């Protein structure tokens, strides 16, 4: 019969970075630690959370966090994935990881083992779910000893096929192979399932799943590789925390006409910035910015691709104020150089130099530094709150991982 699938695509509904996390979740007598081979269950459950919410999965790629390739602890997505990993271990079905690890492949007599449990009980459950149009999480079992239980794995099943020769196939999103269709195949007399990305698994079971509402920072993430231009409206995400650059109408205490800039996890017009080539005049208005007067979205000249070394100004769409910084000012929490917005700044205060990691054109998915041209301080954020749910944004004289930003969405 032909392949039957639920409406789930690993390239769209799976994460764009690999499962390269490491977590210790148990310590055996004698001190031996049991580690997961990543946060596979968290990635599987989180992907399903977004799918059930009809919301796009964040499209951040592994290049933002080289060399680890995954968001670091403290990044909201990394912490969400870890939480969902632990949730997956607290289900009733998670006990199968223990019982199936200790069970034989083939039972004796009426006693069944992993092979028959999978083919007779669990494969039909996958069929039932897919026929109903619903992807489901799978627990893949390979371990035969408890001290190797961390070698087991968790994926999302979204399709199946029954061959005329008795071959069974399950299509899965395997977070070890982002963006790929991975096939688990077992012939009629096989005792295991060979994955198209390499491993051979003893068997699998459908896991219990209880969804959680996911955090959605944008309903229209920018496609990776989209060129950023001098007339783009952008939402900028801080690479190391995942929070978004925003501003509001409140002022820093004791500082006149210096409105606050911060990062947060909300998604609204306070996070949209219009890029203007430094030195340009106030040119055409940004189109299709709902609810914002055209007078505050004007930019500088004809749009042109931006690249490493170019100078830009960033205008906050909701207020019409410009992102600024000045040498000698101090931020409220860490005392680093203050970053704020100003209605009528000087060019020196409002000009930022683009530094694309690796050089070249600025595209969505690339990581970029924005360096204050006059002072040399990099636009910077960190895990220092200025208010509940809001982290401080500063100008940083040095250089570290907290200087990197990426384009979350364009307008």
From TrEMBL:
Residues 303-357, 359-410 form the MIR domain. The keyword Repressor does not apply. Coiled coil: none annotated. Signal peptide: none annotated. The keyword Lipid metabolism does not apply. It comes from the Bacteria. Keywords: Repeat, Signal. This is MIR domain-containing protein.
